Amino acid sequence: MLASHADRERAVDVLRAGYGEGRLEKGEFDKRVERAYAARTVGELALLVSDLPLGPVPQPAPVTAVPRTFLPAPRPRANGKAVGAAVCGLLCVPTFGFTGIPAVILGHAARAEMERTGESGDGLALTGLVFGWLSIAAWSVMMTLLVAVGLASG
User: Fold this and answer.
1) Of 19, 83, 116, 123, which has fewest CB within 10 angstroms of its CB?
2) pLDDT value at position 55?
3) Rounded to whole angstroms, how far apart are CA atoms 91 and 97?
4) For the chain, what is the HEC assignment?
5) Which pLDDT score, from 0 to 100, does residue 61 have?
6) Low-confidence residues of the chain, pLDDT below 50?
């Protein structure tokens, strides 16, 4: 098969890489480049570069470990009870406060557990506690008013 200009340039690039890596002497390199530009077939080009690697040989980069100082700090996991407290606290509105007591219980348990384990989620636990206590207070006011109205009406 006849060689194209691109084939010749690829062969010369391989020769340049070999010369750059010290695989060829200057005289040998010049002689092969001259023969590459004069080659008529792909087979002639293949003979010129057959004893060289096909391009520059990658040199392994030295692997150095990153000091722990520069690594990002791992984020602590969110406490599951804190997530449950926040969900129960937010569900107080659509459930008319029936999830208030579980929100308070889970919120207090989560805050105690987070203090021991160092997990995150204090804001979630606090959200559950606030909504839970508000719903309990609302139910207490409602029950007090119902008892007062019942006693007043006779």
Assistant:
1) 116
2) 53
3) 8
4) CECCHHHHHHHHHHHHHHHHCCCCCHHHHHHHHHHHHHCCEHHHHHHHHCCCCCCCCCCCCCCCCCCHHHCCCCCCCECHHHHHHHHHHHCCCCCCCCCHHHHHHHHHHHHHHHHHHCCECHHHHHHHHHHHHHHHHHHHHHHHHHHHHHHHHC
5) 62
6) 56-57
